[in-house]
């Protein structure tokens, strides 16, 4: 790693922003300038990394809103940036065709036509050693990120079926090329190990390039995020030089949802505990920190992690939540099978018992014995047909 320092005391600006009005977002970003030490960006390669997890329209709150991207690129240009590239690697195959679909669905195409940003279509990536990683010492990372002088991490605040919360740190998982993400899920099926890997990745990138974190919490997502939850208005933009501190602040907004990456970051000294985070509130946003977000259905897995290894794991398998397919919604696209890191989802002949007048010829079947409960299938299903099933006893206890 380079010698760039990560200060746990870095302030997190939480600026009130009640709507996706571009001038209002610009004002929120500009209000952070005195606190985050923005230097001139002239002549530097600035890479904006948005959260474009899947082809979802902006009003679904699964992706960063295009108005935020517009305001961010204008803000960066005001600070001298003359080489701004937007780069993302969503779930699935990492190629130009998939990127075009993502950019069109999320509104990034329109932003690039009228704002100072170029959309990345170069799908090269490189294997990079991370000798100081706690659990992962080798990452595949997309080329634009490795070439960046400045990384601008533009995340969306959401609850998340696997990690509890998705914000600045989790957004960096999108710097790993498409299908390689599934390999990472397979390598780190344990919830804690996967979170530790995410912190390794984000820390490496923070030490490699100058870093700016912007979290879109104007409208967040609660429930079964990162793609199938419910939009929830918060009315805030979070800005910091430290993504770990930004997530500590974000976890206070979420409230009551276990975010393991926040705990791991604090344990490493990369950020303070959420209650000790240095938050600079600008405008009337106190209500945004009241918490009370609906957790994902998978949240009960955290309660039963302590029994993971009892009786050969049989107790854990009995009580842990797991994905199931709602065949009344499924249309047999096979995205879930393609995204399964352990290949435990197979496409089988459709059964008329599913009760659909126009049932697809083939539908997915999830083999529970091999499932590692990463919930990639739920995250990437374009129809929201994958649900999370709880054991009735666990549901009652929770």
The level of helicity is 25-40%
Fraction in beta strands: 15-25%
Number of strands: 15
Q: What is the averaged pLDDT score?
A: 90
Structural class: alpha/beta
Shape: globular
Radius of gyration: 20 Å
Largest sheet: 9 strands, mixed
First-last Cα distance: 42 Å
- Given as residue ranges, the uncertain stretches (5+ residues, pLDDT < 50) are 309-313, 394-398
Polypeptide structure, described:
The protein is α/β, with parallel strands linked by helices. It is built from 16 helices and 15 strands. The strands form four sheets. Strands 1, 2, 3, 4, 7, 8, 9, 10 and 11 form a nine-stranded mixed beta sheet that branches. It is globular and about 60 Å long. The N and C termini lie far apart (42 Å).
Offer a quick outline of the entry:
The chain has 16 helices and 15 strands. It is an alpha/beta fold and 398 residues long.
Task: Give the arrangement of secondary structure elements.
Blueprint: E1 12-16, H1 22-31, H2 33-36, E2 46-50, H3 66-78, E3 84-86, H4 96-106, H5 108-114, E4 118-119, E5 125-129, E6 138-142, H6 143-147, E7 150-160, E8 164-166, H7 168-171, H8 180-187, H9 191-208, E9 210-222, E10 230-240, H10 243-254, H11 260-267, E11 279-282, H12 300-303, H13 314-319, E12 322-325, H14 335-339, E13 345-349, E14 362-366, H15 376-380, E15 386-389, H16 392-397
Parallel strand pairs: 1-11, 2-3, 2-7, 3-4, 7-9
Antiparallel strand pairs: 1-10, 5-6, 7-8, 9-10, 12-15, 13-14
């Amino acid at each position: 790693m380079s010698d760039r320092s990560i200060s746990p005391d870095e302030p997190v600006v939480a600026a009130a922003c009640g709507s996706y009005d571009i001038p209002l977002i610009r004002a929120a970003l500009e209000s952070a300038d005195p606190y985050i030490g923005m230097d001139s960006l002239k002549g530097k390669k600035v890479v904006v990394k948005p959260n474009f997890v899947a082809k979802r329209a902006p009003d679904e709150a699964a992706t960063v809103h295009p108005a935020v991207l517009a305001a961010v690129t204008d803000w960066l240009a005001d600070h001298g940036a003359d080489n701004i590239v937007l780069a993302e690697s969503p779930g699935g195959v990492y190629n130009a065709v998939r990127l075009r679909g993502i950019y069109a669905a999320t509104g990034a195409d329109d932003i690039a036509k009228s704002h100072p940003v170029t959309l990345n279509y170069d799908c090269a990536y490189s294997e990079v050693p991370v000798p100081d990683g706690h659990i992962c010492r080798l990452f595949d990372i997309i080329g634009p990120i490795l070439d960046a002088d400045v990384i601008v991490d533009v995340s969306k605040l959401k609850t998340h079926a696997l990690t509890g919360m998705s914000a600045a740190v989790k957004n960096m998982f999108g710097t790993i090329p498409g299908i390689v993400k599934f390999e990472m899920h397979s390598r780190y099926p344990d919830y804690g190990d996967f979170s530790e890997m995410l912190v390794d990745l984000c820390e490496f990138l923070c030490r490699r390039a100058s870093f700016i974190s912007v979290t879109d919490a104007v409208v967040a997502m609660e429930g079964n995020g990162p793609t199938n939850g419910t939009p929830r208005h918060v009315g805030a933009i979070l800005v910091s030089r430290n993504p770990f501190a930004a997530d500590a602040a974000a976890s206070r907004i979420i409230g009551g949802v276990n975010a393991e990456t926040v705990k791991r970051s604090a344990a490493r000294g990369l950020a303070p505990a959420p209650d000790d985070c240095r938050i600079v509130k600008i405008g009337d946003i106190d209500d945004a920190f009241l918490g009370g977000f609906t957790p994902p259905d998978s949240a009960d897995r955290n309660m039963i992690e302590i029994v993971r290894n009892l009786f050969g794991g049989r107790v854990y398998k009995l009580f842990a939540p797991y994905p199931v397919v709602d065949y009344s919604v499924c249309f047999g696209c096979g995205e879930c099978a393609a995204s399964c890191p352990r290949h435990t989802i197979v496409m089988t002949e459709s059964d008329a018992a599913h009760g659909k007048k126009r049932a697809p010829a083939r539908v997915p079947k999830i083999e529970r014995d091999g499932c590692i409960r990463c919930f990639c299938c739920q995250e990437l299903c374009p129809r929201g047909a994958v649900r999370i099933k709880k054991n009735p006893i666990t549901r009652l206890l929770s």
